[in-house]
Structures
1.
Amino acid sequence: MVRATFRALLVSAVVLGLATASAQDFDWRRFEGTSIRFMMNQHPFTNWLQPLVPEFEEATGIDVTLEVFPEDQFRQRRILEVSSAAATLDGYMIMPGQVSAQYLGAGWVRPVDDFLGDPTLTMPDLDLDDFYAGALDTFRSDAGLFGLPLQIESSVLFYRADLFEAAGLEGPPTTMDELMEYAAALEGDQMAGFAMRGRGAAATSQTVNLLYSFGGRWMDDEGNSALASPESVAAHEFYAELMREYGPPGPANLHWAEVTSLFAQGQAAMIFDANVFRPIMEDPAQAIDVVRENVRYAPLPAGPAGSVPGVLVWGLSVNHASQNPEAAWYFIQWAMSKENQERLLEFGVPAARASAWENEDFRANAPADWIEASQTSFQNGQPDWNPPVIPVAEVRDAYGQAIVAALEGRDIAEALQRAAASVDEIVERSRR
């Protein structure tokens, strides 16, 4: 009942917001009578958005159909429709870090720069500068801006304040060297000093944070894999030592569920993973009391190149073959308006607008250090949390083999050299 009442209030506010925009000479009813169809991933954003669609329809006269699918099915159906130039698909949810190279190369997204330059098609308070730069940059290309970000996610350090105090450690580690020292000081018979993912391809979204922070990158200027660079070798040597010396047993078996469970159940003093897992650490059903009472948050410690985490972004784009691109753009603007981004963040999805994070109600209820750590990560983040290539999954698998080799104590430089050669072969094959 509380949630239903809350949603009703949100709906009223959304309608009021559109009415206010209309009063400012922006015609929200310009495309009245138009029907649009969006394909959506089954995601918390979609769960939030669906109940509000009827209010958008009432305020604009645009009929909206949302087709929602589980992620694997969503990806398959979306590529079938965009590759066949389905004119009945007007827009879709997209993670640029996963598919932008493929979609841009094939021309499957419609740039919106012409809309942005037309005040009759872009609402006056869209305010692109309000989006975190790392989030908006994932939608920038040589062809122009091809959508708007709805959420930005990055990784932060989770740590136990009580264990830090008992070990005489002041505040969270701010450098990678300190992280290693803290992990050594916190390790015990039943306590890992530190944990993060290690399960092959699943670990790449976290190890890339170390790669960037040690000065490495996915690809070099010639488009070849840079995984075997000296910076990359140094990052993975650090990672292997940290995990092998101070991590839990079997680090190559750790995915996010295992990492967060270790921390929530009091078996790890520090972990590094996505900021969206904060609710796990504050949930009595998932975290023991001493963890819930003492969990704290901090940004990624700085390596030789600084603190440079990867950022994961979802957003909405207009389909290249849409017959109603302007109406689809209306829907995207409305969904990512400042008011809706505030409500999305209160719903629990990390919104992509900076202003949403300044909302007084939100700041009164979320931990201040989590907000600060998240915002710092967003500002410093590198948008290519996945390799900027078309065969993303294959490249992650090849890189994941080097991660496992490092955790198993094999020659890291050699493993990365093999991974780099595999990546180059995979990328070259995709170009034929």
Note: Confidence is low (pLDDT under 50) at residues 1-17, 19-23.
2.
Amino acid sequence: MTVLTQPPSLGDVLKYEVNPNYTRDTITLLAGMPYPVGSVLGKITASGKYKLATSGGTDGAQTAVAVLLYAVDATLSDAQGIVVARGPSIVSRAALAYDATVNDGAKITTKLGQLVAVGIMPRDSA
């Protein structure tokens, strides 16, 4: 029997939002990698572009401010993406993808707290 696997989708990440016209934004993702659905993103202050939120640094991207709703391949050049950028909204904690520097429970908890600060509520039971 053939087993089919489906990549994560919007419905795996976003569980509730008050109004898509209010909670979502179209943003520019920094070139250099493919971004998976559920990427936890920070905004680079100098350029206004987004990248995976890091656990340290001083470029502004160390603060999580958005969650990517659709996978985007920005390997070769900057690319557009759609994010949930404010709440009230609920995302599935299990579906979130982090930068490699966010590699332990304390750093993940920090990123989740930063999302809560902008109204994006990560939930285990979502």
Note: The chain has a mean pLDDT of 95.
